[in-house]
Specification:
Layout lengths: L11 H12 L5 H7 L4 H13 L19 E9 L4 H13 L3 E6 L6 E7 L2 H10 L7 E8 L13
Antiparallel strand pairs: 1-3, 1-4, 2-3
Helix pairs in contact: 2-3
Keywords: Activator, DNA-binding, Transcription, Transcription regulation
Pfam family, one: AsnC_trans_reg
Organism: Phenylobacterium soli
Length: 159
């Protein structure tokens, strides 16, 4: 059984390690230890503990969407035909399987889900809308917002 994240109290050093790792997930343990004024063994142990307690859930490379033919960012409001647990579960499962969907959030308000997707261009979005999104379980209505300019995009959490 994984340790409960609530069992670990973050101190200032843990937060410093997390901030540094968010900014550079490829940093070596030696360099991380140096930046945070720790010994390499103490640094490695703290990072191991942060991973075990679920504060660090993984590492990944951040790609330039234009270089991988995914320059069009869209947000879509999705309204379901019914708000029952089986429809929610079926829609969520379909969203998890759709590779163009980067994020999908159930929200409170005038619609049920907010979807964030990246596609090549407007023609690709039209295909995604017609072939994937409107065929997902329970979809009654969608409203699309194409992004004209990305002002800020980050996954760094303020710690």
């Amino acid at each position: 059984m994984a340790p409960n994240p609530n069992d670990l109290r973050l101190d200032d050093m843990d937060k410093r390690l997390l901030r540094t790792l968010q900014a550079d997930g490829r940093i070596s343990n030696q360099d991380l230890a140096h930046r945070c004024n720790l010994s390499p063994s103490a640094c490695s142990e703290r990072v191991r503990r942060l991973r075990e307690h679920g504060y660090i859930t993984g590492f990944s490379a951040v790609l330039d969407p234009t270089k991988v033919d995914r320059s069009l960012l869209i947000f879509v409001e999705v309204v379901l035909d019914r708000t029952t647990s089986d429809v929610f579960e079926d829609f969520a499962a379909a969203a998890r399987r759709a590779p163009d969907i980067l994020e999908c959030h159930m929200v409170a308000g005038g619609f049920d889900y907010l979807v964030k997707a990246r596609v090549r261009d407007m023609a690709a979005y039209r295909a995604f809308l017609g072939d994937v999104l409107v065929d997902m379980p329970g979809v009654r209505e969608t409203r699309t917002y194409a992004v004209l300019e990305e002002i800020k995009s980050t996954s760094l959490l303020p710690i």
